User: Fold these one by one.
Assistant:
Number 1:
Amino acid sequence: MEIKNARRIVFKVGTSTLTHPSGMLNLRRIERLVRVLADLKNMGREIVLVSSGAIGVGVGKLGLAERPRDTRSKQAVAAIGQVELMYIYDRLFSEYNHTISQVLLTRDVVEDENRCELCRSTFSRLLEYKAIPIVNENDTVAVEEIEFGDNDSLSAVVATLCGADLLVILSDIDGLYDDNPRQNPQAVLISEVHQLDETVLEYAKGAGSARGTGGMVTKLHAAQIAGAEGIDTIVMNGENPMKIYDLLEGRPVGTRFFAGQPGGR
């Protein structure tokens, strides 16, 4: 499939893209991202947004000096931050006359056949209503046994539930390199990956996101999950959301992982 023909697209935005190095929200970048996604909706594309950031927003809202480490505190902070995060998205998307919806998931939901089918139906109806589903892990109730652990994997699961044409993961790195570009200025960006072999997996261990719970390894895992269902994955830098236009106009951006990758389950 040509990327420019993708109609239903899942975008994943991580903490590293949503926040400044201080940990506080990067409001300018969020505003630009929302503007681009709203414009894509105006073009007739269907958009689903998987967004991290609840704990980070909660930390800022409460004025905490640092991110909590114990589970109970993280869950409480996420409960506060999720409300604020959705308020920001609702306010910004409303400026462009688009309606959002909130979907919070845990692994036990998508692993139960009946509940999984309900999720599919809900996503389908939300998109029929022209709403933009905004998805996050339900951090307030998630514990180790039922958590996804990272929103890269969650975004791939959401892409399969939605029957997406494309998964786009926005990160703080341009894509997959053959070495860590932060340490080696000669590192080469790999524009296409047709097979996730041991060489590619070894590349992924060398570089990842500077902030957040994921890294390049989790993005490759997401590409495996989505690829097993026939969905291509793009990993690209989210610093400039305008680059999304370049991607969807067929210009080379980031790293494209072609569908059919083994080991997605």
Number 2:
Amino acid sequence: MRLFWRNGYHTTSTRMLEKEMGINLFSIYSSFQNKDGVFLASVKCYKDLIRKQLLIPLAKKPKTITTLKGFFYDFLNFTKEQKTYKGCLLINTANELGTDMTESIAKEISSFAEEIREHISSILCETNTKTEAELTRQTNYIFVALQGVSLTAKALDKAQIDDYIEMTFLGI
């Protein structure tokens, strides 16, 4: 998982996976069929980590905009390796592969995106008296902002990232 996260899907070779996993190529192909199989297993591991470290704690907190904003900062810290933000493995992969991703990878990414959107929506539902259509638009906005902060954090300094997050929640 960390190898794909650090290097991206295309740059991660089966030889790199062999070395990282400490098993030979035959074992990789026997267990996972191909590189996509290893990647899908990595995605499941990544999703489990996010659930355990971010989503389960988020669900236990008060449903406030401050909590949702804190989730952005928690997410950034989750993606940090030493002093560098790596972004989200799934968002990075979606951007890297675009329309070239396999159906199984696209399904894993979209199902998890929907899970995160549901968490965002549940918080917004508790904090707003808006119509369902307005809540849907706000949920989409916050979700896209989370994707944006994940991607841009790899290139921006802390003050710019903080401004981005603070401005995202200014009108919510």
